[in-house]
Amino acid sequence: MSANVSTDEGSTYRWDEWTLDDLVAAKADVRVSLVVPAKDEASTVGQMVESLRARLMGASALVDELVVIDSDSSDATARVAADAGAAVYAASSIRPDLGSLPGKGEAMWKAQFVTTGDVLVFMDADLIEWDTHFVPGLLGPLLTEPSVALVKGFYRRPGPSGLDGGRVTELVARPLISLLHPELAWLVQPLAGEWAIRRDLFSRLSVPCGYAVELAALVDTAAQRGVEAIAQVDLGRRDHRHRDLHDLGAMATQILSAMLTRQGRAPIDGAELIQYLPTAGPSEPASRHVVLAERPPAREVEPC
User: Fold this and answer.
1) What's the rounded Cα separation, in Å, for the pair 296 and 53?
2) Using an 8 Å Cβ cutoff, are 182 and 102 in contact?
3) What CA–CA distance (Å, rounded) separates 142 from 119?
4) Quick one: which of 13, 27, 90, 275 has the most CB atoms within 10 Å?
């Protein structure tokens, strides 16, 4: 896709359409919070935080705060992130009066209670091929186009498949969009973990606690603001650690559940996913509980 292409649905940009100086000038009095949800990412989160702080908080004033939300990591994620200079919060310790649920979406929802930015930028913590230009790229449309409220990143993925989406994107999310929400079919990577949103909008969205948070945000934004409030930005190349196929089954379950809820099915808190694991003998069924709960819009939550 070429730079700044307007479609009937939304607009597509390239990350290099803005310089850091352009964006710092456009930022004016807008506060930007960079949020990194993380679980067991000690091997990557430190270098990420150091690079982002040096480039976007030290060399420029584009980002006002960098926050890591730790989702019950079993490794040193929290310590490594704090040593690198991030403000670190355990998701379970944020608003304990609201309880705690597992999942990426939970960490992102809880981030609203410990950040101050008018704009929230999210980045996954497991990136192994990326660059700091991801953040200004995502901020470009939000800081220069008042009508844009949510920005999705997309990128080239290394590998032989020839597809820019991951396995869950191509096998679950894209078919669901084609069948239920074709107005979003122009988005290259609807499940991308790199995206940005105005706080005023995010606080009005129901947030699935698991991996459906990205797709649900797109569907709900289109319903509330129209697809013209969504933009996407080509961020170049990106890679991350790949998950086991059985873990992807749980992710797919969460995405399907969120979309069914948005089609009118009564919300459910969880389901038992039966999968069959290879063994030396006959396959053995293995059951895992998949959390499907959603958090209400943050603006509807009583202050503590």
Assistant:
1) 32
2) no
3) 8
4) 13
Amino acid type, 85: G
Interval 68-95: pLDDT, tens: 999 999 999 999 999 999 999 999 999 9
What domains does the chain contain, in order, with CATH numbers? 5-242 (3.90.550.10)
| Residues forming beta bridges with residue 154, ordered by sequence position | 234
Under 8 Å between Cβ of 149 and 230:
yes
What pLDDT digit, counting tens, does each position of 132-189 carry?
Answer: 899 999 999 999 999 999 999 999 876 554 455 688 999 999 999 999 999 999 999 9
Both tokens of 301, joined, read 């939550």
Please name the residues in contact with 297: beta carbons below 8 A apart, sequence gap of 6 or more. Answer: 203, 204, 205, 206, 207
